[in-house]
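Good morning N.,

You mentioned wanting to compare the apo and holo forms, so I went ahead and generated the holo version with iron/sulfur cluster. This is what I fed in:
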Amino acid sequence: MTEVNKILTKENFSNEDLEFLLGLQGSEKTLLFEHSAKIKEKYVGNRVYFRGLIEFSNICSKNCLYCGIRHDNQFVNRYRLTDAEVLSAARFADENNYGSLVLQSGELETGSFIKRVEKLLLEIHKITGNRLRITLSCGEQEKDTYRRWFDSGAHRYLLRIEASDQELYEKLHPYDGRHMFQRRRNCLNTLQEIGYQVGTGVMIGLPFQTLKNMANDLMFLKEFEIDMVGMGPYLVHKNTPMFALRDKLLPLEDRLQLSFKMIAILRILMKDVNIAATTALQAIDQLGREKAIKIGANVIMPNITPGKYRDDYLLYQNKPCTDENADDCKTCLEVRVALTDNEIAYGEWGDSEHFRSRIKSATDSRVK
Ligand code: SF4
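and this is what came out, ligand included:
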């Protein structure tokens, strides 16, 4: 039996095993992808869940060194969707049977922002008859805020750790007391304690990042018992401090292939989690998201933000589909998913199976 086959048949993986798998090339890499595709089919089926994405504001108080909408980027047209625009996008998701939506924004901790999100959650549930699952992606917040939003009907929360290694994390963020690794980790714990389905993810192919870091990222996701994962290649934005490091990056194709390997290995490690096929994959390869679905991803996020704002939510450059409207995006994704021999699970919430079993085992152990 070859080394790859030996590792793939193991029950548990060591960090060294993961690092070995991340280094696979050629026919051995194909073996990995075939194996992860089978695991996907067996545990989550060949179904893809839609999450209608509403990027409701690009105003952010933070300054992550890689991000195109960081506070200090003076070249961004700042916007905030009106309540009517958010509600109309939510209605579109409901009428088109998406089952779920994601409200995403830059990070603000002001009282008015917190209240607005709360109000939007309540309004969306009201106008859609509670038919949608709502995910929030609004950054680090106090426990009380997370609790208020949960009580107003947010069921899931996405907060990307971006790099699970503290040293690497600190290279990606300013050292100003407002971008603390420990706070990010604490927020993830708090979200779990409150009862959210929790999602996180990392960037792949960062400067200074090693295969060992990526293997540790995968182990972090597993040990943290994460329910949902969104990860993709790191892509530069010219108006960010990290643009200066662009010569230190791996070629785009290598970052893409590493991203596919991360997705495939994660599917093998965490068989029942939800994994997103992120838009960043498509920024490198026209068929990037389809390829990710084939080897392990089972979630896709059609953008339903009104088209006129999309050019202003550029976390990285060459973001695809910014010139489309919600209808175009739906049609395009239907074709793309059909190409993968998967079907879109219209009208379903698509909760993470991992979340269900995590909650069940926590309840069982309390009863014992
Ligand atoms: S990554 Fe998020 S928190 Fe950081 S600057 Fe960008 S939008 Fe703000």
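The mean pLDDT is 94.

Happy to go through it together on a call whenever suits you.

Best,
F.
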